[in-house]
Amino acid sequence: MHKLVWISLCLVLSSCATAPAPLDASSDVRALVMALRDRDLPGIEARMDRPALQAQVTGIARAIAANEIAKRTGGGEGGQILGVLGADLANPLLERLSRQALEPAVLADLARRAGLTPETVLPSRTATSMGLKRLADGRVCAPDPQTKACILYFGRYPSGWKLNALDEAALRGRLAAPAASRARR
Q: What is the C-alpha end-to-end distance of the chain, expressed in Å?
């Protein structure tokens, strides 16, 4: 019995040691926030998975464009077909716009508008790790302090943890807002 307890304890500890932990990610997450705060453009670029982020932004923008075209052409099956065709035609433009939206300077400016200034004191590595959530897919996320919903997702790469996804609902809202304001005009 005593041997079984030790074997179980070793298995539990070894699984904890191999699982990605928020403490592992906290240094890289904190480094990204510092790079955003200090407008360190190479530092921002080094801590993001641009292809993954661009694919996410382009995909959402494409879906919004297809829905908008479908609505404007009367909806229904024909409108949906036109929406998909229109989004396909607009795809090069959507890719270019998503690339521009993910430029480190744009991200740094967004962070500045969100209140992250050079005077902002960042939490310690330990406090940062306590604020991160471990996800079932091996990533960690930074949750919104009010809603506790994940807003920034980080994956583990050979060079460290990188930002690889954003909250889809918030992203949809930001991308759909310009289309909605144009429709009201």
A: 75
Number of Cβ atoms within 10 Å of the Cβ of 85: 12
Q: 111-140 in b/e burial notation, b at 16+ Cβ within 10 A? A: beeeebeeeeeeeeeeebbeebeeeeeebb
Q: Residue type for 89, please?
A: L
- Measured CA to CA, the distance from residue 144 to residue 142 in angstroms comes to 7
Between CA 156 and CA 159, with CA 158 as vertex, the angle to 5 degrees is 90
**Cα 69 to Cα 77: distance, rounded to the nearest angstrom:** 12
C-alpha span between 33 and 116 (Å, rounded):
9
For the chain (185 residues), the mean pLDDT of every run of 10, in chain order, is: 32 37 84 91 93 89 79 74 70 77 84 82 86 92 86 92 88 68 53
DSSP assignments along 118-173, one per residue? TTPPPPPHHHHHHH-EE-TTS-EEEE-TTT--EEEEEEEETTEEEEEEE-HHHHHH
Sheet of 133-134, strand order:
133-134, 140-143, 150-157, 160-166
pTM above 0.85, yes or no: no
